[in-house]
Amino acid sequence: MSEKQLKLFGKTPRIEFSLNNQYKFSIDQHNIEVKKNRAILSHFIRAVCFLSNKGLAFRGHDESAGSSNRGNYIEYIDEVSTYDMSLKEHLEKSTVFRGTLPDIQNDLISSMSAIMTREIKKEISEASFVSLLLDETPDVSNKEQLSTVFRYVTVDGNIEERFICFTDVWDAGLINGLLLLINVLCLQGIPLKSDCRIKNDSLRLSPVDGYNICSSVRI
Q1: Residue 64: its pLDDT value, please?
Q2: In this protein, which residues make up the domain named DUF4371 (predicted)?
């Protein structure tokens, strides 16, 4: 061993230490990128929450770059990007996921709907008193739809009304429409009591009438 090698002995970083430091650095960079992406995604989620809460349309008739009104969703995101440089950079440079495409908007809406339905299901399963409000009305195309709203008392004593869905009952008839509705609720995992009754001015169904439509639905 030369004199130079003796002087450097023990001072040169070992290869495993260098690799370990590089590995830690890559993890730190990854975590920074994940944090940045989550912050950007939060803006898209807030846009969906805001527009849904106000009952505003998401899409625009002309969403091209030169349009003066590209729709509420894109206009909201563009406005926020003027204050958030990370979001602005993402919108300008991203080529894979920009977060403004219609499919992305629909995916965000579906994901948030699933989360809300899960929370409603939990509240209903814990409630002692639950009522099901149904209203049949035609839409703009004159097709009959059955709106479904649950009204119940939470464990905290608060009265809540939660809209669940629209059910297409076009040409289904009232009884078949109700059976279809029960099936939709089952598919969504909405719990109904096994001793439930369905009533309105023209219909009264219960297990003793031969329509035990709730016997297979369990909490």
Answers
A1: 85
A2: 35-171
Tokens representing 55 are: 């009952």
Q: How far apart are CA 13 and CA 2, in angstroms?
A: 19
Counting every residue written for the chain, the total comes to 219
Query: Average per-residue pLDDT in the chain?
Result: 76
pLDDT on residue 212? 40
135, 147 in Cβ contact below 8 A? yes
Who contacts 145 (Cβ-Cβ below 8 Å, separation ≥6)? Answer: 136, 137, 138, 139, 166, 167, 168, 169, 170
* 52-99 pLDDT tens trace: 989 899 998 888 888 888 899 999 999 999 999 999 999 998 888 888
- C-alpha 72/C-alpha 50 separation (Å) is 10
User: Does the predicted model carry a pTM greater than 0.70?
Assistant: no
Beta-carbon contacts of 180 under 8 Å, excluding residues fewer than 6 positions away, are: 167, 169, 172
113, burial (CB in 10 Å: exposed 0-12, middle 13-18, buried 19+)? middle
The neighbour count for residue 139, using CB atoms within 10 Å, is 11
Q: Which residues contact 97 (CB under 8 A, 6 or more apart)?
A: 104
Task: Output b/e per residue, 60-86; b: 16+ Cβ within 10 A.
Answer: beebeeeeeebbbbbbbbeebbeeeee
List the beta bridge partners of residue 111: none
Higher pLDDT, 3 or 199: 3
What token pair was written down for 111? Answer: 């994901």
